[in-house]
């Protein structure tokens, strides 16, 4: 599967206290985030409560992953009908992004076509953040599938003590192109079980602690020489613990576990961070720019339109984010202090970095 790569910006110190999350505190279209990741089977994900301090500041990153939210204007192919501006109101996507919400690695062995990428579609409203469907990308072509039952990821507004349940059902039917189907049933139970201060290497944040329990049942139908059969795909019971702040539109800290026979095992840890390039794929995108040194305007040319440009200082802090609008772009750097910077160019193929002096 292809992965989208991109950084985010640093956050400043915030005032601490109990908070309420609204739709304004969640990601929207054309935004980008970077997460540092690590493994630590002994990390304390269970302890929580009111006016609590979670101190994860000693974590050491081992890798990084990135997230880009693409606007509905970038939906292509048959997915436009399913999630574009002419779709029914519940299915008009706010954005879409690369997703891991389907066990693609396990299912690919049974599918008759290669799957290059899986995208998930999200709709934001004042009362919920919902998952409305998926897109399978094969050989550059996207096939969109609406969720018959729309899953609520976050019921809003959200504050300490809230809890809710939601179900999702999606039938990915590849007929008449291929005689194959993929059915996903999900049951989510969410409890906002803590509030206080969370500390990470990225900073400290006034946050809500949210615990999701996700029970998923997947199955694949395919036909061999005219004989059809359903194959269940085992998906363990999943827990997701996340800390969300009003100062960031993505979780500032997240721990995932799988539960088997009543025992949870940590499978993923990530926290919001600055860009350091750990584990991210460097693309071969050709980038030219002038002048260098620069005074007020940096003229940048790329062989294809980039998703985003980031200006990063030598410590890894991102000072400016500029959405890509054309292959030839002018970037205002007049407010930058004198010094050395990197211009990081992000596209679906990865990132390219060039250095300049202000």
Distance between the termini: 38 Å
Strand content: over 45%
The ordered string of helix (H) and strand (E) elements is EEEHEHEEEEEEEEEEEEEEEEE
The overall strand count is: 21
Order of strands side by side in the largest beta sheet? Answer: 1-3-4-5-6-7-8-9-10-12-13-14
Largest sheet: 12 strands, antiparallel, barrel
The quaternary organization reads as: single chain
From the helix content, strand content and strand pairing, which structural class follows?
A: mainly beta
pLDDT averaged residue by residue: 88
Q: Give the overall shape.
A: globular
Low-confidence stretches: 1-15
Number of domain modules:
2
Keywords: Signal
Protein name: T9SS type A sorting domain-containing protein
Signal peptide: 1-17
Pfam family, one: Por_Secre_tail
Q: What can you see in these coordinates?
A:
It comes from Fluviicola chungangensis. There is one protein chain. The chain has 2 domains: 23-272, no CATH class; 287-357, Sandwich (Immunoglobulin-like), CATH 2.60.40. Strands 1-3-4-5-6-7-8-9-10-12-13-14 form a 12-stranded antiparallel barrel. A 4-stranded antiparallel beta sheet has the order 18-17-20-21, with no helix packed on it. A 3-stranded antiparallel beta sheet has the order 15-16-19, with no helix packed on it. The protein is built from 2 helices and 21 strands. The longest helix is centred in the first third of the chain and has 5 residues, at 79-83. The chain is globular, with a radius of gyration of 21 Å. It starts with 30 loop residues before the first strand and ends with a strand. It is an all-beta fold. A hairpin with a 7-residue loop joins strand 12 and strand 13.
